């Protein structure tokens, strides 16, 4: 499968292909310093420089079964990733961005990282606890796990607003997969979308005005790859929810935070359809 790692500029509406590869790459994160992106491919983690784009592997020691839940700390000094190889299920690890030994964060699993608080103090993640999906946070050393919301449906994709006051997430708690938000310390969730489409992976922009998300046709089971999907943008000042563009993607397109630090651009992955 051919993957394209793309950058989209909101002000011009233009999309630029930064890197095209025959490898399956997923879930771009934009470094706070702006100089590189992180992606996963074939169980590993890779840096892609904006100046000289190529897949440069990150040394994660024995960890070689990553999923696409990874990211970068607000100060750029730490990478976070989720791996199955050591625990037999997805658990969260951190590693210094400059290199070093990975450290396990969550003692319990499965746990799927999705957000880092703007002050750098806490991680937000989807989890299964007591056989139910949940949205949780914990301290950087894995202590003080707080289950903020749980239920019989599917909960996923928590990401902080830039002021740290809210966590956005997607859930089927209203029947279909829609976007919700709740206070970052927990509280009653507020439904933010109610449309004839399935909404996944909300990412508040650094400026605080916009939220980017991935939309599937309503009734899609889970968040599969190789589907006709769209990227949509919510304007929190006007309430407008508009489609930016359609693409062939889904799983791997924007699973984790993907905004450029200045908030005017974002990164995403799209894929070539399989041969007819």
TrEMBL record:
<dbReference type="InterPro" id="IPR011042">
    <property type="entry name" value="6-blade_b-propeller_TolB-like"/>
</dbReference>
<dbReference type="InterPro" id="IPR011659">
    <property type="entry name" value="WD40"/>
</dbReference>
<comment type="similarity">
    <text>Belongs to the TolB family.</text>
</comment>
<dbReference type="Pfam" id="PF07676">
    <property type="entry name" value="PD40"/>
</dbReference>
<protein>
    <submittedName>
        <fullName>TolB family protein</fullName>
    </submittedName>
</protein>
């Amino acid at each position: 499968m051919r993957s394209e790692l793309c950058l989209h500029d909101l002000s011009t509406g233009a999309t630029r292909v930064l890197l095209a590869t025959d490898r399956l790459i997923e879930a771009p994160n934009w470094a706070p310093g702006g100089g590189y992106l992180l992606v996963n491919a074939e169980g590993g983690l890779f840096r892609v420089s904006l100046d000289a784009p190529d897949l440069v592997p990150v040394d994660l020691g024995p960890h070689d079964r990553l999923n696409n839940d990874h990211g970068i700390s607000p100060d750029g000094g730490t990478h976070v990733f989720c791996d199955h190889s050591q625990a037999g299920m997805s658990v969260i690890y951190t590693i210094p961005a400059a290199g070093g030994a990975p450290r396990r964060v969550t003692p319990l699993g499965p746990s799927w990282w999705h957000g880092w608080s703007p002050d750098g103090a806490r991680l937000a993640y989807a989890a299964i606890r007591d056989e139910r999906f949940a949205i949780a946070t914990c301290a950087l050393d894995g202590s003080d796990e707080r289950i903020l919301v749980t239920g019989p449906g599917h909960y996923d994709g928590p990401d902080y607003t830039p002021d740290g006051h809210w966590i956005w997430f997607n859930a089927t708690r209203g029947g279909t997969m829609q976007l919700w938000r709740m206070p970052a310390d927990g509280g009653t969730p507020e439904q933010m979308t109610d449309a004839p489409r399935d909404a996944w992976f909300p990412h508040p922009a650094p400026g605080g005005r916009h939220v980017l998300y991935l939309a599937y046709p309503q009734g899609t089971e889970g968040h599969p790859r190789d589907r006709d999907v769209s990227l949509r943008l919510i304007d929190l000042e006007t309430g407008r929810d508009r489609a930016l563009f359609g693409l062939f993607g889904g799983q791997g397109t924007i699973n984790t935070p993907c905004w450029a630090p200045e908030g005017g651009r974002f990164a995403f992955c799209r894929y070539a359809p399989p041969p007819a």
